[in-house]
Each structure stands twice: as C-alpha cells, then as structure tokens.
Amino acid sequence: MKNKVFALFFVAVALISCKKEEKAPETEKTPLVVSDTLKWSERLAKTLIHQYPEAYQIDDRTSPKWDYVHGLIMTSFEKLYQKTHKKEYFDYVKGYADATINEDGSIVGYQMEKYNIDMIEAGNSLFFLYNQTKDERYLKAMQLLREQLKNHPRTTEGGFWHKKVYPNQMWLDGLFMGSPFYAQYTATFEEGAALDDVAKQFELIQKHLLDPKTNLLYHGWDESKEMEWANKETGTSPNFWSRSLGWYAMALVDALDYFPENHPKRAELVHYLNQLAEALVKFQDKTGLWYQVTDQGDREGNYLEGSGSSMFAYALAKGANKGYLPSIYKDAANKAFDGLINNLVKVSPEGYVTITQVCAVAGLGGKEKRDGSYEYYINEKKKDNDPKATGPFIMAALELNK
C-alpha cells in the first residue's frame, strides 16, 4: 500500500513539473530596430524618423508649421545626408519644405509683419534644397525671408529686434535665428555686400551683453531698459542661460563659413568665438556637461542640461575642425559628447535614442512675465528629445565622427 502511495505521489509531481514546463514562456529578445553599429548621428536620426514619420510633426505638431526648431533639425539632416548620401535623409528635409512652402513660394502660416527673427532660421536648409533641385519655390521663399531682414525693426545702433512684440531687445537666441541665413544669402546672391551688417549684429551683442568678469554673455538686452527683467543701468537680463550661449556659439561657427579669409570682420568674429570658448570650458562640469544656469554649478535646483551641452559640443568641435579654434577645444567637445552619452542619453531595447534633461523652453518677458531669475530658469519644464537638443547632438556627432 505504501509503495502504491509513493508511486502515485511521484507521478503527481512529474505531471505538475510537466505542466510548469509547458507554461513557462521562452524569453524573447526585443528586436533591434536601430542598429547599435550605426554612429550616434544616424541612431538618433532614425529614432526621430520613427517618432515623426513626417518632418513637420517634430515637436509634436499635428499640422505643418514653419518654425525654427524644425529648421534646426532639417539642418542636421542636411549635414547627415551630405555625410552618408542616404536618400531617406534628403527626403526628410525636402518633405518638410514641401509641406510648408506653397507653389508660389509663400510659406504656410508665415506673417512677415510680425517681424519674428525666429522665422528666418528655417530658411537655412533651402540653399541646399535649391542647389539640389533648382525648384524656384525654394528660391522665392528665401527671397521672402531676405525681405523680412531688409525691413526688420532695429535698435538705434542697427541691431535686429528679437521680435516686434519684444521691442528694443536683442537676445543671444536671435543671432542664430538670423545671422547664418543672412550671411549665406548675401554670400550666395549678393556677393557678400551685407556681411558687414551681419558682423554688426555680433558686435552689438558683444558690446551690450558681455560680462567682463566671466566673459559669458547674458541672455538678453533691452535698449530701453524698461523691461522688468532688465538691469536699470546696463539693460541686461540677470543670468547666464546655457542654451542661449549655445545659440550664440553656433551662430558664430555657422556664420563664419561665409566670411572669406580676407574679410576685415572675420578676425573679429573668430576672436569672439575664442573668447567664448575659453569662458565656457571654465564652467564645464567634470562630467563634460554644462548646467542649465551656466555659472551656478550644483547650486540647489540647477541641473546638467542636454541642449546647451549639445550645442557647445557642436560649436567647439566645428570651431576646432575649421581652424577657428585651437585643436584643444576638440578635446572639450569630445568630453562633452561623452558626457551626454554617459549621463543623459538613454537607449531603448529597440535601439531608439532619447536625450533627457532638456529644458523645453525659456525666454524673457512676454505674457508669462518671465523674469530671467535663477528660479525661473531651473523651474521651466523639461522635455525628452526636444529638437533643440537632438539637432545639435546630430551635428556634434558628425563633427566628432562619433
């Protein structure tokens, strides 16, 4: 009897074991969509194409809009196409232009009378598209943007206002929004006639926004000194914001491409870039990154920020590659890029790339009464893979051949 009970017991255990084995699912690996053998520029570009199949959808848009963030990404894809010659990157750039430029060269949603310097930036990739296709729409759109610059309101010394709704103000952001396009247009179609005016924009920024103690530049300047954020003696905003400094650094390295070596203003712009580069590396964190408020280090609330760090990596790398900066700054750029990968970049099991810790937006004044304080900058919302980080990241990766 005991033997029968033991026999039944062992049979029962065996059956239970079999059932457990039958139910245990096999471990399935998530299929790798974006290969980790690709360079970082393509890995992020393919991530963006997956997330936004149509380029106008970037920044979570549901309909085509002419905007600087799209222009920034289109420039990065243009550079990627020139490096790889892969048609999907060309098609992405052309797709954005075709979604936002009408047959007559007019631009969807664009209103010149608003005199918003941000609207100029998206025209940067049109030189490339026009050269590739000879489509007159692109030329007409560029001419339209050039017309804005001819009539754009200015300070008493000739500096472009940031926007009509921000009278008498120059922001660092605006130098990137307007100067590279202005320089390339005049070099391409006007034989460089207006390059002195391009240089003047940088001269005025250096004159009014440079802090002599740090050689960093404040985010904005109000000639009238009437804005709540403006210093009543100097007109400057109160803090250094890394992304605004990044816009300025990129403006210098990109505009310089169109200043011939014998141009009398070229050495001046190179000096500005070197002065800024020297100042920036003093505030580069041991991780290789920069903080949201550039000079405040690990003060409570401050954080290592993705867009400014990506912009600095690009500007320093390109500056060194072009010979505008000593080669040592390429080391700083490599350190910055490695810092992004090691600290802020996440890769999904499918291979999709995400840059974290990116300030979504920041500005001065306006309806939001943005005061430019330390507390203001550290409390603005963050957004993963914000285009103001992804575009410069791709360009930095290309300059560094990462």
From TrEMBL:
One of its GO terms (biological process) is carbohydrate metabolic process. Keywords: Hydrolase. Pfam families: Glyco_hydro_88. It comes from the Bacteria. One of its GO terms (molecular function) is hydrolase activity. SUPFAM superfamilies: Six-hairpin glycosidases (SSF48208). InterPro entries: 6-hairpin_glycosidase_sf, 6hp_glycosidase-like_sf, Glyco_hydro_88, PolySaccharide_Degr_Enz. PANTHER family: UNSATURATED RHAMNOGALACTURONAN HYDROLASE (EUROFUNG). This is Glycosyl hydrolase family 88. It comes from Flavobacterium sediminis.
